[in-house]
Amino acid sequence: MFRYTHALVCRVPVAFRTRAEIDLEEARRQHEALCRLLRELGVDVVELPPDELHPECVFVEDTAVICNGVALITRPGAPHRQGEVDTVRAVLKKELGLPIVEISDEAAKLDGGDVLFTGREFFVGLSEWTNEAGARALAASFPEFSVTPIKVSPGVRLEGGQQGHALQVSAARSLHSTPPHPPPASLPLIILSPLEPPQLTPNLRQVSEPRHLKALVSMAAPDVLCVSKGAASQEVLRRIEREASFSYQTLTVPEDSAANVLSVNGTLIHRSAAEAPETCKHLEGKPELQRRQLSVSELAKVGAGLSSCCLLVRRTRAARTF
């Protein structure tokens, strides 16, 4: 489980700096470091050239969901990103030889960053970029796995003062637990009460921050969920524990930003000590984990940073590089 032969990545375009106050050269160095590490772990990295028409093309994870050697091409929730899937589709089909599944429902929205595959089942974040129709499309594409949608509410950052404050994350029940049953037409959501909002002072203002499910929970190892101590991450974990068809262990890290990790060929890839010092200290006490750390501060200003920058594939036939 979580053994990979190939990774598809896309280099950072100049246009990326239009999405935030980003040090472009540092973002590119961080992306190159990720590619080098993946190669060191035995992964054949296929690099796409930067697409200046699509500033967020570096977050290639959002364009497809790959499971059991099949690639589901997503329908990104942000309209300006929908053109990113064309190149990814072609490379997955022609260069990596994967069967392609398309989403026929034009109302569906699905970002790969909202899809968590544990190796046994799927959890899908219902966020600004993924809706119920997208979750149903995923369930229809991989009927051998149960699919549980989880509502991901935007976080709230306070500007002009203290660090951000996260609001509620709520959840919905499983689409279906056994493959023969078709997914229902609609998903009844169980909305949880919001957390206590912060007290604002005249120099503070709340800024909504949409986020993907995998910014709150990711896979640290087979059957091991990585979450942070933050309220939003913990609420998602509680919902997963209630709705999951299988049992999982949990790796809880101190910093919210460290909840997004990668598990690649037996190695846990996590945020560097410079970016998540308390998490690194915590992980030092777990010698059973083979770990590597990366800095993704510039990439993470727009996306989750680690998982969002690659599509991981397991296949046997060698891929061409270009």
UniProtKB/TrEMBL annotation:
Keywords: Coiled coil, Hydrolase. Transmembrane segments: none annotated. GO terms for molecular function: amino acid binding; dimethylargininase activity. Residues 17-44 form a coiled coil. It comes from the Eukaryota. One of its GO terms (biological process) is citrulline metabolic process. PANTHER family: DIMETHYLARGININASE (PTHR12737:SF9), DIMETHYLARGININE DIMETHYLAMINOHYDROLASE (PTHR12737). Belongs to the DDAH family. This is Dimethylargininase. It comes from Cloeon dipterum.
